[in-house]
Amino acid sequence: MGFWLARERTVQETGFVKRFDPRFWTVNFPRPMMASVVTTAPDSLRVDAVFYRKNDLAGLIWASEDRYDHPLLAYETARDYRRCVLSFRWRSAGVLPLDAVNGPTLTIEGRDESGTARSWYVRLWNYAVGTPEDAAITLDFATLQAGFSLPGEAVWAGDVDRMFVSLAPPGYDEAGGDLDAPAEGWAELTELRCDGSGSVLKIGDVMMPPHTLRIATGYDDAYNVTPARLLRSMVQLGYRELINHYVGMSHYFRLTGGLAGLDGGALNAPCAAWHRDFAARAKALGYELILSLSYELLDQHCPEAWKQRATDGSPALTGWAPPSTLLSPANGEAMAYLQAVAVAFCGIADDAGLRVRFQVGEPWWWVAPDGSLCVHDAAAVAANGGVAPNDVQAGAMLAASTAALTGAVEAAAPDAETLLLVYLPTVRGREAALVPTGWAAPAFDVLQLEDYEWVTAGNRAASLRGAAEIGTRLGYAADRQHYLGGFVLRPEDSADWAEIADAIERARGRGVAEAFVWALPQVIRDGFTWFDEEERVDTFADVSFPIAIGREASVEAATSTAIAAGAGGREQRNAEWAEARLKFDAGPGVRSEADLGALIAFFRARRGPAQAFRFRDPFDDSSSGTTGTPGATDQLLGIGDGTRTDFPLAKDYGGVARRITRPATGTVRVAVAGSETSAFTLAEAGVVSFDAPPPAGATVTAGFRFDVAVRFEQDRIEVNRATFLAGEAVSVPLIEVREG
């Protein structure tokens, strides 16, 4: 694998795009209203909105700086619009018309000629020809004037940050208050074109080669951009075939009285419009979608009875701002709601001609800060005979709820594939409640695992052990698993991408069916660029040299020392190598034609010197002396500091430490503060990874047997059959390969 964090476009491919291209508009709005924008033709876009309050206002935005595309794909920043003429046909319904007092207005934000920040408000009706809901509009930025009527104040469009068209509900009142009922509206800009010498922008046009890493994204992060823009990024960054799409927890629901519910349907109109467009475009581009739905819902819009609750009755709340809550698996109304939402999203996929692939995303009982489970809501207590459920009972409730959820999906789409996503760091130690045996295969078709907390902390041992334990507990073979690698929450933590890329490769090494990077917004923000490297010969084959032959090998330890003698005979010596390098000759062990055949077969399999391999040094293979029986306190690996979990194996030779990268399987024994422990995993390159950091000041020691990484020194082995049968020894030189 390979990856690159692209900070800016330099020599990469560049194309051109017209200003105001429909793909690159965005929307924004205050909660609780909702809006979305989709492209309906190469020169057209549509905004759908639902308003709940009298002062709700949606903005259709064009930004001078591209903040929503990967650095290799973004359009150039150009703030001068004075040589641009924008024209389009406006059509709308359910929003204030063009001629209304608070009707659609173009707000231009930037600076005037003196550099002073300011805004101008351009009433679109002043530049319209037609009716208030169907008109042709032309905006020449060189002569544009702000104000309710013309003539007005001249707009200086030479230093613009962004501009947006406002959409307000009928009955708009800046003072606020709830509308009598939710109001749905829409606006279309068609025949959209930009003319003039300033109408063309450079845009990144990099096309990464298709690779086998898949992409994950989420509606809560992408609700404001067009699906066409989102999919352009995926295609041009090389992601193919499969998208894991989280439908979110804060933008899909319909509201009645401020609370999520099913009045009028499961999904609000803007969300449904966005997903219909997303699904249709994904299908056309050859993608399949995994639609992910969790038990999480934005707290402020969740009915109180649906919420999981702690022992003191407080609702389960996440750390997001604003917080989300978790739906109780025992609450029938909440679960019926989730089922309706799932069926609605899966129906969109089915209508687009996609196979329905539905993921239950991280279903769990929330764990309170004191470690207790939030299983004290009225529904959970009632379902358990009036007392809060224990872990096993809570797990049974959780499994029953997910079975009902996937059952609803399968009833609507009988050939649906069902997937389960488990976040390993949260469930560790609480498997009875959070990974119930009711999830065991074949309850789901695919098990998906995620562990970014461990990955970004560098805790490889926990990742390896967690994946193995859950796979064993639930009975899903590696080829029925997916791995989600990520994510990097803050841009200042972009160094975490190296650990994430490594974790993805380790998961692939376990044989998972698919690996995803989570998620596209962070990929774009940090310029994460993935590419599959050409297949190459592995530099190390984890196999041993034929032991019977190797036992008779001779050994030679070599150093490299530069010695300079002065005129008076004094010497200056400089050790050019940190430690000795070993050479072996395995020829003395070749004593029969069978040995010779085994040697030549091994040489061919390693492609001569191309691949290194394990070799047991007959004179030094133990942490105890040279060949003694290993003990857990033989070698000091380090001193605990309360945070460090990884300790590389090493052997001391009179004050010179030798890294041991190839310990013999099953021989490693470890002690902390003199007490032997098994709470560790042996990671790659001979690294002891503890499940929990050793305490500060505690000695960490180990004992082991080990092999040496070597390769054939030469590209050929020469054997004369006649002289060999006459007793002449074969020369098989091997040389140590430095690792670690």
UniProtKB/TrEMBL annotation:
Residue ranges constituting the DUF2460 domain according to the UniProt record: 542-738
Residues annotated as domain Non-contractile tail sheath N-terminal: 17-204
Stretches the record annotates as Disordered: 614-640
Residues annotated as domain Non-contractile tail sheath TIM barrel: 209-528
InterPro entries: DUF2460, NCTSP_N, TIM-barrel_NCTSP
Biased composition (Low complexity): 621-631
NCBIfam families for this protein: chp_TIGR02217
Protein name stated in the entry: DUF2460 domain-containing protein
Species in which this protein is naturally found: Sphingomonas tabacisoli
Higher taxonomy: Bacteria, Pseudomonadati, Pseudomonadota, Alphaproteobacteria, Sphingomonadales
